[in-house]
Amino acid sequence: MNHLKKSSALLLLSVLIHTSLMADERKDAWYVTTTGESSVMESIYGSMYATLYEAADGNPNVYFEVHSPEHCRMNGERTMEHNPISINGTFVQISQHCNGEWNLFFPFTDQGRAYVRNQFKTSRSVTLESDGYTLIFSAIGFIEHYNKINRNLNAL
Predict the structure, then answer these.
(1) For an engineered disulfide with 43, which of 27, 95, 108, 115 has Cβ 3.0 to 4.6 Å away?
(2) CA distances in angstroms from 97 to 11, 65, 68, listed in the order given
(3) Radius of gyration over alpha carbons of the chain, in Å?
(4) Whole-model pTM?
């Protein structure tokens, strides 16, 4: 019986370590998701992602997204204003838009979009601060993912 408990404990420990390592990989650097997007998970809570999508102007843009089925059900797929968010110490005007069950936050102005892209290109991490929350995203690997998407979007 003691041997069975030890085996079960070791199995549980190995599953927890494996799960922990898998989760950390998504927080450590930009990666390609199972649906083909370039993304990185925020490193404190693990509840928000920064993802590159094609913006209305045809260029790659960083969207911060969180799974919010109730919020999106109540508000529908419409763009709404959001309070400015501090991104690496600079306040950026933000809009939000639900896409299915995901609430996407993104810079509202061209200057804000360029600033956020530049922060991911030139920093090791990008920090968002809003309403008492701090969220940190790795910038490692961003340039390669951005360049690949930009190249694909601008191909002849």
Answers:
(1) 27
(2) 42, 9, 11
(3) 18
(4) 0.80
Beta-sheet pairing, 79-87 with 90-99 = antiparallel
How many Å separate Cα 29 from the centre of its chain?
Answer: 11
Place of tokens 């997204």: 65
pLDDT in tens, 91-149: 999 999 999 999 999 999 999 999 999 999 999 999 999 989 999 999 999 999 999 98
What's the token pair of residue 151? 């190249």
Question: How far, in Å, CA of 69 to CA of 44, rounded?
Answer: 21
Distance of alpha carbon 149 from alpha carbon 61, whole angstroms: 10
Position with higher pLDDT, 78 vs 135: 135
20-45 confidence digits (pLDDT tens): 444 568 898 999 999 999 999 999 98
Tokens 């690997």 locate to: 141
Could you tell me the two tokens for 64? Answer: 């911060």
Rounded to whole angstroms, the Cα distance separating 4 from 19 reads 22
| CA pair distance 139, 50, nearest whole angstrom | 10
The two most distant CA atoms of the chain are separated, in Å, by: 67
